[in-house]
Design a protein that fits this description.
single chain; mainly beta; 3-stranded antiparallel sheet; globular
Length: 195
């Protein structure tokens, strides 16, 4: 697990933890976590942010929290702590493979107020609702320099939706790679193929 912090504007940060699960048919139904932001002297600069999420099978997941305020303090590092986790659970094989394709990422206004758009296509035979889609942007050294999250209300099988992201201030570095990560909770009851 890798965590990163991104300044959105003075005293406001987004954070993301990057989690990879290589188990083909196993995931975690509920994982309770905490983000803690520290300055260069390892002093806590914001109230810890607690939440819960799921971990998908055979996927890279991006756990995202936005709008963390630090007042006049500057966040330098973020610590992602797992407070408790349920046991691993079996995941239906339909969720073990790539469910989506991402195309046409377009980044504009990098020197003023960056905007990003992309197309997310549902390649599965399952209909999804309220899909969180995390964007992570990297510089030439492949270090993450910005992140954001949006939601797709409905993404039925075989359809595609355009997603949009925006930031109020420039990144301070040149973006060389964009990663778009839709997240699907495999433990929600849905009508699966051949069910």
């Amino acid at each position: 697990m890798v965590g990163a912090t991104f300044q959105v504007t003075n005293g406001v940060y987004n954070v993301v933890a990057y989690v990879e699960n290589q188990n083909l048919y196993s995931g975690i139904k509920q994982l309770f976590y905490e983000f803690r932001l520290y300055d260069k002297n390892n002093i806590l600069v914001a109230e810890p942010v607690q939440g819960s999420t799921f971990i998908e099978a055979n996927k890279r997941s991006a756990v995202f929290e936005s709008g963390i305020t630090t007042g006049d303090n500057e966040a330098y590092t973020v610590f992602f702590h797992i407070n408790s986790v349920q046991d691993w659970d079996r995941v239906s094989q339909e969720y073990a493979y790539n469910l989506f394709t991402i195309s046409k990422p377009v980044l504009t206004n990098q020197t003023t107020a960056p905007k990003l758009s992309a197309i997310v296509r549902n390649e599965s035979f399952i209909n999804f609702e309220d899909v969180p889609v995390v964007a992570i942007l990297y510089n030439q050294e492949d270090n993450a320099i910005a992140a954001s999250q949006t939601f797709v209300d409905v993404l039925d099988q075989g359809t595609e939706q355009q997603v949009f992201y925006s930031w109020p201030e420039p990144f301070g570095d040149v973006v060389s790679r964009i990663e778009i990560i839709p997240r699907i909770d495999p433990f929600i009851d849905r009508e699966l193929p051949n069910s």
